[in-house]
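TASK: fixed-backbone design
INPUT:
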C-alpha cells in the first residue's frame, strides 16, 4: 500500500493527548478499507488495510483489526480511535448564502479515548503527515490482508 492521503489530528480526552490518522480523498472509494491504529505508549500511528471482517466499523470489527495488527507486530499497545459522532456547527436555515458562509462552522468531531472506554476526545489541532513526523511522530504504512 502506498502512502495513504490524509493528515493527523491530535485529540484530547481531558487527561491525555494522542494522535489519530485521518484518511482523506476525493471519494469514499479512495479511503474505504483503510484502518489506523494509535499506540498507547508513544507518539506513533500505524496505517493498514482492513480485511473483509473488519470493514463494518462497529466495535466487534474494530476489535478484530486491533487484535490482528497487535499479533502481527508482536505488540499489545495499538488501538483503533473510533469516531463516535459529529455535532453540526452550521448556523441554520433561511440565510442568504453570504450569511451562511459567514456563520458556518465545521462539525465538532467526538472520538473515543484510547486510554479510557468511557471518555470522549475532541480535536485539539490538525497537522500534515510531514509536520507530524517533523515533530517526532512516527507513522508506518503496512500492506496486509
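OUTPUT:
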Amino acid at each position: 500500500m502506498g502512502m495513504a492521503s490524509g493528515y493527523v489530528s491530535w485529540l484530547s480526552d481531558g487527561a491525555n493527548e494522542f494522535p489519530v490518522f485521518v484518511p482523506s480523498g476525493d471519494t469514499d472509494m479512495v479511503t474505504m478499507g483503510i484502518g489506523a491504529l494509535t499506540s498507547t505508549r508513544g507518539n506513533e500511528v500505524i496505517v493498514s488495510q482492513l480485511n473483509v471482517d473488519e470493514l463494518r466499523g462497529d466495535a466487534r470489527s474494530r476489535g478484530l483489526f486491533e487484535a490482528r495488527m497487535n499479533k502481527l507486530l508482536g505488540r499489545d499497545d495499538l488501538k483503533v480511535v473510533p469516531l463516535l459522532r459529529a455535532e453540526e456547527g452550521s448556523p441554520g436555515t433561511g440565510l442568504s448564502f453570504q450569511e451562511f458562509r459567514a456563520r458556518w462552522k465545521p462539525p465538532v468531531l467526538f472520538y473515543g479515548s484510547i486510554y479510557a472506554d468511557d471518555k470522549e476526545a475532541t480535536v485539539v489541532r490538525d497537522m500534515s503527515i510531514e509536520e507530524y513526523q517533523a515533530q517526532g511522530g512516527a507513522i508506518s504504512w503496512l500492506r496486509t490482508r
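COMMENT: The chain has a mean pLDDT of 89.
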